[in-house]
Amino acid sequence: MPDPKLKIAMEEVKEILKKHDIVGCVLLSSASHIEFLRHYQASWCYAWLEESGLLRIKLKREMFESKEAQKRASEDTIGTFAGLYDALLNEAENMKKVITMVGRQCAFDHITKHEPPGV
C-alpha cells in the first residue's frame, strides 16, 4: 500500500508544476516508500508520456509558424531533457557512492517494490 502522505505531497507538486508551466522529474521518499513523477505537460514542451511510460516528442515543421519557431521549440524541449539527464545522472552517481560506502560499513537489505500505475 502506498504512503498516503507521499500521494498528497505529489499532488501538491503537480499543481506547482502546472501553475508555473514547468517540466519536472520529482522523487519523494518517506522512510518506507517512494513516489516518482515525470511531468512534461508544459505549454512550451513538445513531449508527452504514453500510458506505457514511453516518452514521445513531436516537432513537425507544420506545427509551427516558422522554421525559427520550430528550432526554438526543439531546442527548448531537447535542451530540457539533456539538462534533466545530466542532473539525474549526477544524482544517481552520488547515490551509488553513498550506498557503496554505507554497504562497506554495515550490511543492509533493500527491495524496491513497484506498484501498478494508478495505485
| SSE series | HEEEEH
Backbone CA Rg: 18 Å
Outline: elongated
Mean pLDDT: 91
Give a short summary of the structure.
The protein has about 120 residues and is an alpha+beta fold.
What does this structure look like?
By secondary structure, this protein is α+β, with helices and mostly antiparallel strands. It has one domain (4-105). It has two helices and four strands; from the N terminus they run H-E-E-E-E-H. It has helices at 4-19, 67-105; strands at 24-29, 34-39, 47-49, 55-57. The strands form two sheets. Strands 1-2 form a two-stranded antiparallel sheet. A hairpin with a 5-residue loop joins strand 3 and strand 4. The longest helix is centred in the last third of the chain and has 39 residues, at 67-105. It is elongated. The termini are close together. 3% of the residues are buried. The model has no long low-confidence stretch (mean pLDDT 91).
Summarize the SSE layout with pairings.
Elements: H1 4-19, E1 24-29, E2 34-39, E3 47-49, E4 55-57, H2 67-105
Antiparallel strand pairs: 1-2, 3-4
